[in-house]
């Protein structure tokens, strides 16, 4: 009898303990599942927030790109359309004068730029009266033909019209120092740019065989008043720069500054990113920094 009672009590106790353990395990599993669900929900919420943020960023970038694009008149190309046009295609652009190179026999050569890119206008029909009105910032419309000469993209055989009542725009300078020697540099062709920390190198030799810092004309055949050519290096690579005498003649500060350069000096420069068989900037300012 005692054995039966004892056995009954033992079985009852075992069942109770098993039930308690099972309940504890069930509670633990429930807690784990709840925590996992909460974590999943939190992760999904964070992912949704990130997706929303990404979408907002993309929308903001698209809006910024749209805002930065030039508003063009009917029938006028955007800069992208101009660049996509084939050589010899007729082009119609609106742009802003940044500097004047020359005028001769009712033909003007201009450095121009809008908010999306730059355009070099070569020998476009322009009266002397209108040429005098082309101060920096003046908005003009040019109809002509897209051309390429030794790598330089330009508008030739064009006609210049001043846009009456047009807004004004002076392009900010772009530092392209780090782009020297890269394929990306040409994306800024004809823009107003700056170079910093270049070292003056020998441009050639004088009649006595001494190294000189500049030459009159590319081969040294010129005299005072002609174009100046000089070399400067960065990271072991040497580049040629030009003082275009029609743009900056021998009465300008930059012409005098280049004539006074010494090999080994460190200089900063500003100018227009012209191209001739490779990069050949037309420099408008030179400052010796070391």
From TrEMBL:
Keyword Signal belongs to the record: yes
The protein's name in its UniProt record: Nucleic acid binding OB-fold tRNA/helicase-type
Disordered, as annotated region: 19-75
Signal peptide (from-to): 1-23
Species assigned in the record: Candidatus Limivivens merdigallinarum
Skewed-composition ranges (Acidic residues): 53-68
Tree of life domain: Bacteria
Keyword list, A-Z: Signal
């Amino acid at each position: 009898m005692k054995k039966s009672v004892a056995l009954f009590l033992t079985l009852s106790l075992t069942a109770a303990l098993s039930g308690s353990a099972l309940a504890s395990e069930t509670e633990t599993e429930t807690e784990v599942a709840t925590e996992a669900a909460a974590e999943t929900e939190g992760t999904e919420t964070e992912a949704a927030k990130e997706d929303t943020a990404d979408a907002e960023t993309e929308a903001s970038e698209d809006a910024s790109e749209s805002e930065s694009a030039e508003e063009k008149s009917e029938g006028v190309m955007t800069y992208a359309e101009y660049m996509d046009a084939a050589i010899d295609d007729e082009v119609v652009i609106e742009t802003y004068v940044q500097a004047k190179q020359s005028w001769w026999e009712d033909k003007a050569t201009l450095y121009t730029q809008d908010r999306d890119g730059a355009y070099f206008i070569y020998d476009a029909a322009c009266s002397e009266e209108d040429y005098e009105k082309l101060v920096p910032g003046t908005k003009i419309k040019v109809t002509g033909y897209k051309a390429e000469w030794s790598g330089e993209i330009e508008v030739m055989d064009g006609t210049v019209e001043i846009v009456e009542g047009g807004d004004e725009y002076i392009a900010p300078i772009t530092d392209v120092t780090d782009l020297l020697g890269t394929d990306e540099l040409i994306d800024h062709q004809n823009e107003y740019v700056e170079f910093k920390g270049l070292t003056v190198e020998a441009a050639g030799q004088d009649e006595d065989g001494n190294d000189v810092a500049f030459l009159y004309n590319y081969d040294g055949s010129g005299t005072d008043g002609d174009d100046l050519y000089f070399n400067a290096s960065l990271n072991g690579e040497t580049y040629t720069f030009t003082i275009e005498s029609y743009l900056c003649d021998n009465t300008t500060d930059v012409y005098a500054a280049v004539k006074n350069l010494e090999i080994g000096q460190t200089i900063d420069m500003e100018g227009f990113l012209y191209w001739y068989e490779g990069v050949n900037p037309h420099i408008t300012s030179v400052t010796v920094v070391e």
